[in-house]
Amino acid sequence: MGTGARRTRRWVLRGGVTATAVGATALQVPAASAAGTNAREPAVYTTEHWKAREPAEPVTVHDHQPTYIVVHHTVEPNNSADTSRGSAFDVSRAIQNFHMDGRGWIDTGQQFTASKGGYLTEGRHRSLEVVRGGRRHVHGTNVAEHNHEVVGIECEGDYRDEDVPEPLWDALSDLVTYIADRYDIAPELIKGHRDFSSTQCPGDVLYARLDELRQEVGDRLGKPVGNRPEWPLLRQGDQGEDVRTAQHLLRARGARDVQPHGIFDSATRDAVADLAREHGTLDRSCCGSAHADEPGMLGADLWPRLVTGRRSTVEWKDHLTRLAPRSR
Ligand SMILES: [Zn+2]
Fold first, then answer.
1. What's the domain count of the chain?
2. 109: which of 141, 185, 220, 235 fits an S-S bond (Cβ 3.0–4.6 Å)?
3. Same domain assignment for residues 187 and 255
4. How confident is the model at residue 183 (pLDDT cuts 50, 70, 90)?
5. Nearest 10 degrees: CA dihedral of 60, 61, 63, 67?
6. Residue 67 C-alpha to ligand 1 middle, in angstroms?
């Protein structure tokens, strides 16, 4: 109840601010939609608002809906404590420049960005218009091998240790709720980048809060939140039965230096890095960020290459989750 009341107040406030600002500078403030209740369209600044560069090629729009909504954190570039709208626009431009010039992509990788101050911006061109339509999907570049099926949202900041600022959280919740409603995406299909790749993105703190996000979105849309275990992300320093299981599996693949003692040590890290190299994913991590993960994390893209056919994928995920429940 408390959350509902807070949200209603915030929407009234935001509506008032928007109405005033539209009168003053019509082009500068996107109007939040008046339709609907809990899934109304939040104010999203389009590429035109923040003066994005034109994409190097026309963006691809698929004739199908996406399956997942994926949360990232930016880490770099241009991560600052500034919570102004101007800073949100600066961050959007810095990310686009980095993705186009640094990574060689046609445009910003993610479809949307949420700033620390709670400003939402469109990332890849046309993303807002296409989500609004609810039937098609703008192909982004933010989750390797899954870009045909994910809508990615970059959260400005580094959430490995720090908690998410409240304005960002609220904006993220508004946007995810809206996208989930437009595409009828079940709350349990709201994921973190690490649910697809061996990366720490979106950071342990934000990742641990995704259950809360799924619940919030489920409550707002009146939908139940299903349980969907994922592959654990294991890395140096971790301990537990899931680590021991990984070590047995690495040894079975020929990594005889790895001892099955349940501690993710440097020998385990090296064996995992070898596995990633073999599969061409060693340098992948979160390419949307200028920050590189340390290599040798065992995550969602590597587990399927390691496990045996003794169990199905779902059974393996359940098994590992039961061995060592990890909320990060
Ligand atoms: Zn990411």
1. 2
2. 141
3. no
4. very high
5. 100
6. 17
